[in-house]
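Q: Structure tokens for this one, please.
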Amino acid sequence: MINFMKKHLDLLTHRVFLVPLLMIIQLGIIYIMIFEFYKYFIIFFFISIILSLLMVIHIVNSRANPGYKIAWIIPIMTFPVFGLLLYILFGGNQLSKRNKRKMQNMYLKELEYKDKHNIVLSELRYENISAYNQAKYIENYALSNTCKHTKTTYLKDGKSYYNMLLEKIKNAKKFIFLEYFIIAEGKMWNTILKLIKEKVKEGVEVRLIYDDFGSITTLPNHYDKKLEKEGIKVAVFNPFVPNLKSKFNNRDHRKIAIIDGIYSFTGGINLADEYIGEKIRFGHWKDNGIMLEGDATWNFTIMFLSMWNFIKEKDEEYEKYKYPYSKETSSDGYIIPYSDSPWNNEAVGETIYLNLINKANKYIYITTPYLVLNNEMITALSVAAKRGVDVRIITPGIPDKKLVNEVTKAYYDQLLENKIKIYEYTKGFIHEKTFIIDDEYLTVGTVNLDYRSLYLHFECGVWIYRASTIFTVKKDFTETLKECREIKLKNLGKLTWFNSLKRQILKVFAPLM
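A: Here is the predicted structure, written as tokens:
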């Protein structure tokens, strides 16, 4: 009985319960204040309509994606008072003066360490002008450097990623940087935590960034304070607090590990047991990652330290964390780690995907957990398929989010009609975010094909051109196809009017999911 009461008391005092409760109370107070003016209803309603129209004009003229605009215009015009209020609180993406200043400092710091006269980029120009143009875009808008002296190792599942990460952490001599959207107590994280505690005792510097909302149900309250007592430096991104003005939509969805400035990791894998098969949630969890060894790791180091300085409001020097590579370091293709920010009006992740699609001549192989597409992406994929490119997309057979999966399925008929092949992973949930193009291009990272990843989250990935890893990833894709069922237009079946209406409504509001 005591344990039962304690369990429920812990739940009631957890931020997952308290923060929404306090936000609801705030909304209730606003509701009461508004309806205090009920006797002036006509005047109040007229003013609300005028303000809603002005807000709609503002939204239409904003730089947001058209789908995102429509998803907000409908509730604003349908419910002038509360639709307008919700957009002001949660729909906009305007930064406070303080955050604008912090973002500017972050940008200037990254710009300071960008190679203004990158010899590798110049070499690429003479090898392939199309690849050069893509690399130049990434350099200019993700502030990354094109690199050659880097070895890439593809990690085809969570266990491979986990074992390789453990090995590199064990051998760390100087520093360990970890940045993840989700950290969950369990075998994976507890083993890593034990190791990094030992490394702290050996004098290795350990820093950890995690997203507060991503880990809110998987870590106890004030977990950062607990780790700091162990000598681990911790920064928590965008804390989940009961403040209606907080930018809850903007999350740090990146997954980055850096060891001694030599090795760096990214991909779809978080530090939680479902990613390594220790916890079964949605059948077999298929995921992947990539490890870089060499010059390109410096890009990830800059990304991590920029985020650290942004959260902590510090201005630390980066140079001491740069590993002195020689030109003799093994080289295999052109490598560019890149980051994407929701606060600079440049959708880097989406543009990289579109550039790859538009340059394809033979095939486009995509794995994605979510297929919530905007018009630009649908058009690009459809045009590629119509010009004879073999476009194949693998999505989950067992979803983790049923509503989002309903939206994914809502796009099937349109894609299939345009000669795009769709496969569902029958063994379970596929969480990979991978594009493979023509045996020439590859990108592996954290960017999903949905609005949140493309427009609202901090993301990262690796763009690769003409490296042997591309063939390794392609082989994994073709092997995965054997564990998928192909979706045929004739087999989709006729939906009931209710399910058809539900999917149509969900597609409209998909940008808000």
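A few notes: The domain at 97-335 is CATH 3.30.870.10 (Endonuclease; Chain A). Residues 177 and 282 are 30 Å apart (CA to CA).
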